Amino acid sequence: MADYIGIKGGKVQNFSTNPPVPIAGQVWYNETTATINYLASNPAGTWASGGNLNDARAHLAGSGNGTQTATIVFGGAYDRTDNTESYDGTSWTEVNNLNASRYGHAGAGTATAALCFGGHNEATPADLDVNEIWNGTNWTEVADLNTVKRYAGGNGTSTSALAVGGYDGTSNLANVETWNGTAWTEGADLNTARNAGYSVGADSTSSLFCGGKTDVAIVESWNNTSWTEVGDLNLGREDGGGAGTSTSAIYFGGLSPSVTSNTEEWNGTSWTERADLSTARSTYHGAGTKSSALAAGGLIDSTAQQGTEEWTSPLETTKTVDTD
User: How far is CA 238 from CA 194, 222, 253, in A?
Assistant: First the structure.
């Protein structure tokens, strides 16, 4: 019979408490509690219901670097397209509106410091280059995008952000712009022009741009110099949402070509399917991290949604072996 060292390549070690940085599958003996323990990996995760938006809407944007307990959403289609709401982890509260009504725009930042850029104004109708900044209380128009666009991806902070890809009313765009807190500057283009993809990243120096029209599985990574195609999604799709960083992310929902609840997790190299959304949806706001994310609003068929779902993935937990 194989022993533990043969299977795992290491001995069961003694520690006064627990090891400082255990790895998944590691077994150890805790001398203080006189117990055998191991680090279990539980990557499946779960989606649970959160508080409903006050206004049902789709094609909205929000603060992608927000958290599951502190984020904002703004704009959208099928209802009040200038409306902004703030989430505290339990309920959504209406706050001050955008200056420019729009849908199909992009966002970046946090609940107290965010950007809203691009999009489409249905009343005009016209695509927009308008860029607004949120200070936690009010929206103020600042320097606009260089290229008019809708359905672009957005990620970063209110002082360091990216506007990735999009649609100019005629064709898909490979165009990428960088925000430095004062102005937008054109940077290196995507390898594959597309719109309706989703971008995640901490700031303008890194990004993971996922999916896009029409139902593509392509994923590109930005290292502050160039875009590189990396591991494709398992399910090609557009109008999905995501959360996390360029090396640790989650991507969920969208159209492929019909609405899907599929959830995938990125470990920096490849995508792995995880637990599905409770409600399949597209064109919604996603925020948070790979282990603690949020999906708000969106579209099911032609009906705008108010629902919010919260993702929790306790990736690793310490377990105690019952030796009785």
Answer: 10, 19, 9
